[in-house]
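Sample intake sheet
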Amino acid sequence: MRERAIVEIPAGLEEEYYQINPEILQSFNKLRPPLNIYRFLEPVSRIASYYKVGDRLSKEQSQELAELVSQGVIFVSRADHSVYVKHISYQLDLVLLDKHLTESEIADIFQIALTRRMESFFDQPVRLVFDKVREDVLVLTEYVWDDFNRAKALAKRLHATHSLANHAVNCGLFGLHLFLACQSETFRDTKNARNILDRSLLGLFLHDLGMTRVPSMIRDKTKALLPDEMQKIRNHTMAGYEMLSRIDIKFTEMERCVSEHHERIDGSGYPQKLTVGGISELGLITGVVDSFCAMITKRTYAPAMDPLAAAKKLFDDSRRYPADIVKRLIALLANQK
């Protein structure tokens, strides 16, 4: 059902309120909506309270509310942004329906929803949970497919502290921005471009999958790692690759993100010690994103770095990191100001 406003809404009203459409209303509890609801009174041209959280709508009021929504006169307050964001994050495809959300508000929703989803997957990395991750990531690619510039707001919604899920989301959101920046202007017209974007973004989110096989006491150790502990860390790329196979994920793009993100162009990386020319472009992008996102978050063994300082450190290490991709990273950071 499409939203149809049949009354004239004053300019500036949406600076303080969201106009609700029928699809959003249907996602609410019919008798106990999760947040305060307001009605626009056309004769006096003002907003008035219609429902308060804690009250209960009657069946008749619920039916009336649906009709008022179809007329375009029902709103929720932007002061309830956190409640609204959390609600939509549980049904992420709703962001594609609500035309009244700003890009920054949508970015908040994606960060919350995808962090929750990645936490669930890393706790239980099985096919059933992966399918839920895939559903949400496909909503994200659907959102940016209409306008690649939307990736800019998403890339600003990065977690400040490190965890496996936080790192996955940071790499997914910022990696999306960098991946698109590295594509040609005709990428959208490339054969299978949408599938390539879908699978590449899934790979960016899941590149560190194998870290779930490394004990947290090793991942979070503040002292220098012992040789056998370091080997367990180094084994995570192949562990992740094997986990993809076990849950029957066979997309080349995902495999490259998982297996190549610690390869370095001078052959000093792992697990295969590949050199420039042997590492895919997506593997190189994932390696840059992985290192950058790790450096800009607070970890148990290192403080967070300023993003530009972290990018410069990668650029100064051009022996190991591809200078062309790092330059694009720096350009994106400069344009965020």
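Comment: The two ends are 39 Å apart (CA to CA). The chain is about 50% helix and 5% strand.
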